[in-house]
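Try it yourself: sequence plus NAI, in.
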Amino acid sequence: MDRKIHRENDLTSEDPSISGNGALDHKNLREIVVNNNVSWLVHYAVLSAVGESNVTLARDVNITGFHNVLDMALEHDLRVFVPSTIRAFGHSSPRDPAPELCVQRPRTIYGVAKVHAELMGEYYHHQYGLDFRCLRYPGIISADSQPGGSTTDYAVQIFHSAVKSGHFECNLRSDTRLPMMYIDDCLRATLQVLEAPASALTTRTYNINALSFTPRDLTQEIRKVLPDLRVSYRVDPLRQAIAESWPMALEDSTARRDWGWKHDYGLPELVQAMLTHITPGKLLAQAN
Ligand SMILES: NC(=O)C1=CN([C@@H]2O[C@H](COP(=O)(O)OP(=O)(O)OC[C@H]3O[C@@H](n4cnc5c(N)ncnc54)[C@H](O)[C@@H]3O)[C@@H](O)[C@H]2O)C=CC1
Ligand SMILES: CC(=O)[C@H](N)C(=O)O
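Structure, out:
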């Protein structure tokens, strides 16, 4: 990519070049675009798990914020990438696997906003020629960021607990299978789709899949390294219901065919990478 990818900063950013509401601040967004010679808008800003408790704000950030991005893209001839999610599906979607094109009736403001983004991006692509690209991410597993309360976060928290106390209390049933992906695969897929020639793309919203596992599968794999790990289950009925409305896997043959998507991390590699990154020293530093 010849020009910069600029990350919109969040509301609490200490970056002096950014002020106000990030993605909601049209003037500020324009300044960033112009001053940084931006060519791609990579739009990650979102209210996810917390969105449900403040729907008005979630609507502003997740829907109005994306409208700002679209307007800016047309004004300045930019290309747009936005991630979507397994949350863009719902109870009435096929679950194993979820195809790229199917019924999507999510019941959270986060999921509804993501479907909205998929459709608006595709509309702008067909109507105005916007180069819009979107990947539906599975649950992303990363050692770098602390779990923020999302339903897939158990699969991050378990590593921190395993190293810190040797005990993890899981809020999902042991047989709940969800699609997941290690962060390195996610970032590589994102760069790959940004760099793919437009002529290779047969759709603008792609599913990407890596691995699917249950809390029990994950526990067994971690125990190969940390045999003393104890896991107990206290199921949160709300979370369990949410997880059961999501796909267990995503059908991603189009991405594999169009731009060569292929994940590197299976379950053993993911566990190895997470435990390598989460050391007791790091956990101590985070606690202080
Ligand atoms: N983490 C995951 O498992 C998955 C993530 N995704 C997508 O990836 C993207 C990043 O996800 P995460 O890092 O997990 O989310 P996150 O919730 O950790 O981060 C979202 C960021 O948006 C920022 N933000 C909120 N309001 C803003 C505003 N008005 N202007 C600018 N920034 C604002 C927040 O401060 C936060 O830094 C999101 O679009 C999410 O939907 C999709 C599927 C799975
Ligand atoms: C899949 C997601 O978008 C997120 N990680 C969540 O669990 O809500």
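One thing you can check immediately is this: The pocket of 2-amino-3-ketobutyric acid (ligand 2) is lined by residues 48-49, 85-87, 139, 150-152 (CB under 6 Å).
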